[in-house]
Amino acid sequence: MSAEPASPERKGWFARLRDGLAKSSRRLADGITSLFVKRRLDAATLEELEDLLITADLGVETAAKLTANLAREKFDKEVTGDEVRAAFAADIAAILAPVAVPLEPREIANKPFVVLMVGVNGSGKTTTIGKLARQWTDAGKSVVLAAGDTFRAAAVEQLRVWGERSGCPVIEKPHGADAAALAFDALVEARERKADVLIIDTAGRLQNKAGLMEELAKVIRVLKKQDPEAPHATVLVLDGTVGQNAHAQVKTFREMVNVTGLIVTKLDGSARGGIVVALAQSQGLPVHAVGVGEGIDDLHPFEPDAFARSLMGIEG
Amino acid sequence: MFEGLSERLGSVFDRLRKRGALSEADVTAAMREVRVALLEADVALPVVKTFVDRVRERAIGREVLRSVTPGQMVVKIVHDELVDMLGSDSQAINLNAPAPVPILMVGLQGGGKTTTTAKIAKRLRERDRKKVLMASLDVTRPAAREQLRILGEQVGVATLPIINGETPAAIAKRAMTAGRLQGYDVVILDTAGRTSIDEGLMAEVRAVRDAVNPHEVLLVADALTGQDAVTTATNFHERVGITGIVLTRVDGDSRGGAALSMRGVTGMPIKMLGVGEKVDDIEDFHPERLAGRILGMGDVVSLVEKAAETIDAEEAQKTAERMMRGSFTLDDMAAQLKQVRKLGGLGGIMGMLPGVGKLQKQMAGANVDDKMLKRQEAVISSMTREERRNPKILNASRRKRIAAGSGTQVQDVNRVLKQHQDMARMMKQVGKMGGKGALAGLFGGGGGMPAPPQGGGMGGGLPPMPGGGMPGLGGGGMRLPGLGGLPPGFPGKRK
């Protein structure tokens, strides 16, 4: 998959994700296992299976598809819980495989590589920026952060702390300043510093607030005045606990600001992030990474197999 | 992407309407749709199952079989049951304890605890005239305490001075001591966000709880939450013990099924709703509205209330009276256009109306937007007073002048005039219906509407905005603002 930073964390991420998902996926797995010790796959069982997938936020449509898939192969046959889980995991991994694309700042002639972080309130944009800054700094890149959330109280301070932790300069303006102006200045300054990467934080906004979405579009327009290629990546940070509204989020942000990929956060909780599977089917946007905690190293590349197996509660 | 339950049930109910009776098979078919609609609204599966069983029980049987329009009856049963489950009355934050009353805020990361803390504090200070102290126990997230301090300054509520290196329980104790010594009525403790399966952090919040014995423990939860809502709510309830739920981001476009899930598994009331980013954006919880929203039936009640708040009641009353008499001038029309904009523009209104999905598509097609409202206002304000009172004198050269004056084309002027005529005609009709009938007309798109106002939403009759008239921002849309003068009659209509 991706070139991972050579750190001792390597073995840890899957375990951590699994630990995080453990309780919930165990319930899912237990559910499936209790459905079958070994029994005939009939209509009633299929319906129960579909329900179990729905409880993981896969959504009605995706759950129906997966169950139909299973039915096509195994209907009326004797199956065990393990077989069913393996079959689901394989199908889910197959859906996810094409979207697992890591986010790596390319070497470009016209530096810096500009990453714009967007998302609804409280999805974890600032924390994710802190983690990305650390990863890319460790990989030898010079990273500059722009505190573009000029709305929420203490958002700038929060990013400043992350900047200190990863040793990245943070460009800021006073609370209430124009976010687009800040983005513009940040790009100028990042250029002067000859930085490799500029990560721009933005205020959280609900996608149905047309005015706020327009403001985001303006940030991009302003960036393009300096560099028509910028932003090189626009990442939508998606809360792992989100339900079906994720579809609307991705769709609207994509239309308004041309989102290039997703990062899914808070997968260390009881939420299973099954919505990712549904999104992979409906939108097909790259999933860059998953957040599994509040620590600076708790951001990991998205690995479809591991994710699918974790979701279905398969060990190892 | 998600149609409302009403649309989803459309085909099922079309059939039902024709036959006028409801068999067990029909109910089963309808319940399948109800189930999917609820799941797509993010209601958690176990809660959906309980709910559907309850509705099924009530739906099969006399109640429905004898009703004239069984389809409407089913939606009504679903709606009522939903209201019932959400809590039949709204419950305020309970401050009935010796001062300082400790309130503990808990929840996942990013749920909106800190913002909500400030909003509640402001409300208690202003509405209940309480002296409130806020303290942040969040020693995890960078600048979290700073955030609460700044918010405190914004809303004029004191915050506990920050001392580094204290444990959350120690901060909580210090806050309570400060509260006692300085004569505060309420102390709100904002905790760090935590996942409900992190034993360490859950123990920490229990330690805080044991230290201060809070009178209210409010779970702050995101209305965008999916199926996980049950797990989170159950865990917080089992491990900390909550007394109420505050739902945030209700101003988003999620269906908010999480509310039903959390209420369903904890039995704890939903006390408040966060409805925006500003410090005043917090509201009491009204089960009927959320029920309508979960079912995708819009939120007509909120719209009416918002209209009542925003619109100059006297002005609206005058307009309404004139309308009843059948005289509706271009000045009235201009006033209405302004009111629509005050209500948050067409987008704001649309968001609250039933069946918007379809309408919004039509609007997009007809290129109706808020700019058009402004243009129409410009056309009207380019007329002389005489012209506005008596549009009949508008000959071709006057129209040309108006177009030039408002920066539009003569066609635009004509369109405004045509629209004014349509509206005046409709107003006259409404006037004829009179009294309550008029209201029914405004909402149901026709007289003689059966009991629940929601019925209008599920039938074919999209209430106040007939799609057909859209291009010119057809009359229907314009009727809404007039409601401002009428709400006294409206509450009587919903039970």
List keywords for this structure.
heterodimer, A: 316 residues, alpha/beta, eight-stranded mixed beta sheet, two-stranded antiparallel ribbon, 10 strands, 49% helix, 13% strand, elongated, disordered N terminus, B: 495 residues, Four Helix Bundle (Hemerythrin (Met), subunit A), Rossmann fold, 434 Repressor (Amino-terminal Domain), 3 domains, 24 helices, 8 strands, globular
Overview of this protein structure:
The complex is a heterodimer of chains A (316) and B (495). By secondary structure, chain A is of the alpha/beta class. Helices cover 49% and strands 13% of the residues of chain A. In chain A, the strands form 2 sheets. In chain A, strands 5-4-6-3-7-8-9-10 form an 8-stranded mixed beta sheet, sandwiched between helices. In chain A, strands 1-2 form a two-stranded antiparallel ribbon. Chain A is elongated, with a radius of gyration of 21 Å. Chain B folds into 3 domains: 3-86, Four Helix Bundle (Hemerythrin (Met), subunit A), CATH 1.20.120; 101-286, Rossmann fold, CATH 3.40.50.300; 302-442, Signal recognition particle, SRP54 subunit, M-domain (434 Repressor (Amino-terminal Domain), Orthogonal Bundle), CATH 1.10.260.30. Helix content of chain B is 57%, strand content 8%. Chain B has helices at residues 5-19, 24-40, 45-59, 62-65, 70-86, 113-126, 144-155, 168-181, 199-212, 228-239, 257-266, 287-294, 300-310, 313-325, 330-342, 345-352, 356-366, 370-381, 385-389, 396-406, 410-433, 435-444, 454-458, 475-482, and strands at residues 101-106, 132-136, 158-159, 186-190, 216-222, 244-248, 270-274, 282-284. An 8-stranded mixed beta sheet of chain B has the order 3-2-4-1-5-6-7-8, with helices on both faces. Residues 434-495 of chain B have low confidence and may be disordered. Chains A and B meet through helix 1, helix 6 and helix 9 of A and helix 2, helix 7 and helix 10 of B.
